[in-house]
Specification:
globular; twelve-stranded parallel β-sheet; 44 strands; mainly beta; 4 helices
C-alpha cells in the first residue's frame, strides 16, 4: 500500500481561493482493484456558488452511500472510487481491474467474483451492450451478494465513478432472448436472480425473460428479475435495497412478468415497466410471503417502495380467471408499502374475477386463519388513467384484497388521481375496490376519484373531488395538467411524504419529497401573478404524479 498527494479534477476548495485541494489517498494493489481520488472539497463548498455545486452534492451523496468518503483532520473531505470489477462487451483477455482490462461478458465477471478472484471489490461496473446470461433457458445472471451493480458506462477511463457515466441505461441491456429468434419459448426463464442482499442495481434495461412454466414457485416467477428468499424469518429474507433507473420490457411469467419474488424486500426509483405480462398475477411486479402451509407466518417487517416510476401496457390474467394486479400484485406481506409519484397507464387485467391495476391483500387459508398483515399501505401523488378491467365486475384501479388485512392495516390514498379507467363500461365506480365493500375502509384524501354522476364518495377522508382532471392530452396519454385544472393547488402539503429514497441526492431524507415524477419539477411551486397584484396565496401541491410549475401564468 502506498500513499501520495494528488489534485482534484474539480475546483473543490472553498472560500473562493480558486486552488485545487490536495488529498491524501491510498491505492490497493491486491485483488485487481484499486482506490483513486475523484474529488476533494471543504464542507462550505455546498453553500457557495462556485463550480458545479450539483456535481459536488452528487459526489458527496454517492460517496457516502458507497462508503468512499473520508474526513481529514483539516476538515476536508476526499471522495475515493471504490474497488470495482469492470465489464465491456466484446473485450478479450481482461481481468476486470479497470476499463483498460475489462471482462468481455457480464457472466464471466460474475463467475470470477464467485470464484473469489475479486476479494477486495464491492462494485460491478458494466458498459453499454447487450449481455445474455448463457445459452440455456435455465441460465441467468445471479448478482453477487453484497455487490452494487451499475450499468450505463461507455467504458472510458474517465468513468471512475457512477457520477461520471457517459452511457445510457437504455443501451445497457440484460436480455433473455438467448436464441435470437422470434417467439419466447427459447428465452431464458429468468434474466436476473438475487438470493441474499444486493445494495444497489442501477442503470439497466432488463428484457425478454420468459418464466412461462407453471411449475410454481420459482420457474413460473419473475421473467425479468427474481428476488428469492428462503423463508419468512430475517435470515431467509432476500433484498434489493435500491433499484435506480432500470427498465423492464417484454418479460413474461406466470406471476410477476417483470419482477417476481418471495420473502423479499425492494425499494426503487426512476424505473419503468412496459409490456410485461403475467399469465396469473402481477403483470409488472408480484411479491408474496405465503409459502407452503408448513412455513411459519412472516415475522420480519419489510419495505416495498415504488417511487417515481412508470407502469404502462402491462397485462395480467391471460390464463387465470382471478388474476390480480395488471401492474403490481402484493400478497400476504408484513411490512410497509409505499407507491409514490408514479404513473399507471393502459394496464389491463383480464379474467372474469380479475382485479386491480395494483392489488394488495391476502389470499388463501393461512390468511383467513390469522395471517399477518401489511403495517402501512400508502399511495401518494399517483396518477391512474386508461387502465382496463375486461370484466365489468372487476376493479380497474386499486384493489384491496380480503382477509385480516382490512381490519388492521392503515390504507390511504393521498394527492392522487384515478380517472378514465374502465371495465366493461367506460366509467366504473370501482376505481378503488375490494370484496364486501371493504374499499369503504380506505382513507382517501385530497384526491380526484371518478365516480358515476350523482354518486357520493364512499371513502373516509377530506378534500376529495370528482371532476375531470383536464390532462394535457389524454389521447396521447400525457397526464400533465393544463392551467385551470381542478387538480392544481388542491392537494395537501401535509400529505407529502418524507424524501426517504433521497430523490435529489442531498442526503436529507427527512425533508418533504422535493420533486414530482419528472424529477425536475418542484413538488410545491409558487404561483405566478401579474406585477402589482396582491401576493399569491401560499403554494399548495397538485394532485397526481405531475406538478405544474408557476401554477398561474402572468399576462
Amino acid at each position: 500500500m502506498g500513499f501520495g498527494c494528488v489534485a482534484s479534477a474539480f475546483d473543490m476548495a472553498g472560500g473562493g481561493s480558486g486552488n485545487l485541494a490536495p488529498c491524501v489517498f491510498s491505492r490497493l494493489t491486491s485483488g485487481g482493484g484499486g482506490y483513486s481520488v475523484i474529488g476533494c472539497f471543504w464542507p462550505n463548498d455546498f453553500y457557495n456558488n462556485r463550480g458545479s455545486i450539483l456535481m459536488k452534492r452528487k459526489m458527496f451523496a454517492h460517496a457516502a452511500k458507497r462508503g468512499a468518503l473520508t474526513l481529514f483532520a483539516a476538515g476536508m473531505y476526499c471522495v475515493a472510487a471504490q474497488a470495482q470489477v469492470h465489464v465491456k462487451k466484446g473485450a478479450v483477455g481482461g481481468n476486470g481491474a479497470d476499463w483498460l482490462t475489462p471482462y468481455g461478458e457480464m457472466s464471466t465477471a460474475i463467475d470470477a467474483i464467485a470464484a473469489n478472484l475479486h476479494t477486495g471489490e464491492t462494485e460491478l461496473y458494466v458498459a453499454e451492450g447487450t449481455y445474455y446470461p448463457g445459452t440455456l433457458t435455465t441460465d441467468f445472471f445471479q448478482l453477487p451478494n453484497g455487490y452494487s451493480v451499475y450499468g450505463g458506462f461507455l467504458g472510458q477511463t474517465s468513468e471512475t465513478a457512477p457520477e461520471f457515466r457517459l452511457g445510457s441505461s437504455a443501451n445497457t441491456i440484460l436480455s433473455g432472448d438467448i436464441d435470437n429468434t422470434p417467439g419466447t419459448s427459447g428465452n431464458s426463464a429468468h434474466v436476473v436472480l438475487i438470493v441474499g442482499s444486493v445494495p444497489l442495481l442501477d442503470g439497466f434495461t432488463i428484457r425478454d425473460g420468459f418464466a412461462g412454466g407453471h411449475s410454481f414457485p420459482l420457474s413460473g416467477t419473475g421473467g425479468g428479475l427474481v428476488i428469492w428468499g428462503t423463508g419468512p424469518t430475517a435470515a431467509g429474507v432476500s433484498s434489493l435495497d435500491m433499484m435506480v433507473d432500470c427498465h423492464f420490457r417484454d418479460n413474461t411469467a406466470l406471476r410477476g412478468g417483470g419482477i417476481g419474488g418471495q420473502f423479499a424486500s425492494m425499494n426503487m426509483k426512476f424505473c419503468s415497466f412496459h409490456r410485461n405480462l403475467a399469465k396469473d398475477s402481477g403483470g409488472a411486479i408480484w411479491f408474496d410471503e405465503f409459502g407452503p402451509e408448513s412455513f411459519p407466518l412472516p415475522t420480519t417487517t419489510k419495505t416495498m417502495s415504488f417511487f417515481n416510476s412508470n407502469f404502462t401496457n402491462n397485462v395480467a390474467g391471460t390464463e387465470s380467471a382471478n388474476g390480480r394486479g395488471s401492474a403490481i400484485s402484493l400478497t400476504n406481506l408484513k411490512g410497509i408499502v409505499h407507491v409514490y409519484n408514479s404513473r399507471f397507464v393502459d394496464n389491463v387485467i383480464l379474467g372474469q374475477d380479475g382485479a386491480g391495476t395494483v392489488s394488495i391483500g391476502h389470499q388463501g387459508s393461512k390468511a383467513a386463519t390469522g395471517g399477518t398483515t401489511a403495517n402501512d399501505v400508502l399511495f401518494g401523488h399517483c396518477s391512474f388513467a386508461a387502465n382496463q378491467a375486461v370484466s365489468g365486475a372487476s376493479t380497474p384501479g386499486i384493489y384491496f384484497g380480503d382477509g385480516r388485512f382490512f381490519n388492521i392495516a392503515p390504507k390511504s390514498i393521498q394527492n392522487s388521481i384515478l380517472f378514465f379507467n374502465g371495465g366493461a363500461t367506460v366509467l366504473s365506480d370501482s376505481n378503488i375496490g375490494g370484496p364486501g365493500g371493504r374499499q369503504n375502509r380506505v382513507i382517501v384524501s385530497s384526491s380526484d376519484i371518478q365516480m358515476p354522476a350523482g354518486s357520493q364518495s364512499p371513502w373516509v377522508g377530506t378534500g376529495n373531488i370528482m371532476l375531470d382532471p383536464q390532462f394535457v392530452d389524454f389521447g396521447l396519454r400525457n397526464l400533465e395538467l393544463i392551467y385551470g385544472s381542478p387538480c392544481i393547488n388542491t392537494g395537501s402539503n401535509g400529505a407529502i411524504l418524507a424524501d426517504v429514497l433521497n430523490l435529489d441526492e442531498d442526503l436529507d431524507v427527512t425533508e418533504r419529497t422535493p420533486y414530482d415524477l419528472k424529477r425536475g419539477n418542484l413538488r410545491i411551486s409558487t404561483p405566478l401573478v401579474p406585477i402589482g397584484s396582491p401576493p399569491p396565496p401560499p403554494a399548495s401541491t397538485d394532485m397526481g404524479c405531475h406538478e405544474v410549475q408557476g401554477d398561474f401564468q402572468a399576462p
